[in-house]
Amino acid sequence: MSIMIFRIDGESCQAGIGEKILSRAAFLSGFCVQGFTIPGAGIVKMDKTPILSRQPEASDFTLVLDPAGLSEAIKNCNTPSVMIINSQKKIKTAAMRKKGIKSYHVDAGSIALNHYKKELSVIPMLGALAKVYSKISMKNMKAALEAEFGKDSAALEEGHKSVRLG
Q1: Which residue range(s) make up the domain with 34?
Q2: What are the mean pLDDT values of the chain's consecutive 10-residue runs (166 residues total)?
Q3: For residue 135, which phi and psi values (nearest 5 degrees)?
Q4: Helix (H, G, I), strand (E, B) or coil at 166
Q5: I need a labelling partner for 152 at 20 to 30 A (CA). Which of 45, 80, 99, 159 fits?
Q6: How far from the centroid of its chain's Cα atoms is residue 166's Cα?
Q7: Which of 35, 34, 14 is CA-nearest to residue 123?
Q8: Is the CB of residue 127 less than 8 Å from the CB of residue 22?
Q9: Peptide bond between residue 80 and the one before it cis (omega within 30 degrees of 0)
């Protein structure tokens, strides 16, 4: 396996929360991990060997917390890559097709509001990621969520069950 790069695009606070949870889950899954935030995004790099680069690079997996930022998120994706979008419905644009982006969607905002009574869509989005990218297990994602924030994992589990292709 070569280095995998994950990007969580959206409001900086949620992107930072997502970066911390995903970094810990990847570490618990046996990977060397590097996580950091940049304005508007959390970046997580993982590999079986130590990671030397500290530069933000094009992502293999992108979580889009706010579909309004979709065009910017597409610019930061590798060709090909995977994108999970916080949306009630399927979104596929010409730019996504051109870059070979396989997209999924999950209504993470509604799930978060239902479970936490506030906009914390990054947690169900991470549940969706655990389903789409099986090298990070739900068990490790739950453990990371608990360790980092002490949150209950119901929203994480609902995101895992609710993610859809397209």
Answers
A1: 4-165
A2: 92 93 98 95 97 91 96 96 97 96 97 92 98 97 94 93 94
A3: -75, -15
A4: coil
A5: 45
A6: 16
A7: 14
A8: no
A9: yes
Which tokens sit at 53? 């680069």
CATH classification at residue 147? 3.40.920.10
- How many other CB atoms sit within 10 Å of the CB of residue 55? 6
Q: What's this model's pTM, rounded to 2 decimal places?
A: 0.95
What tokens does 81 get?
Answer: 């890559």
Q: Which two tokens stand for residue 42?
A: 């959390």
What single letter denotes the amino acid at residue 72? Answer: E
Residues 133, 96, 165, 12: what is their CA dihedral angle, to the nearest 10 degrees? 60
- How many beta carbons lie within 10 A of that of residue 71, not counting itself? 11
Total number of domains constituting the chain:
1
DSSP alpha helix (H) spans, the chain:
12-28, 70-75, 94-99, 108-116, 122-132, 138-149, 154-162
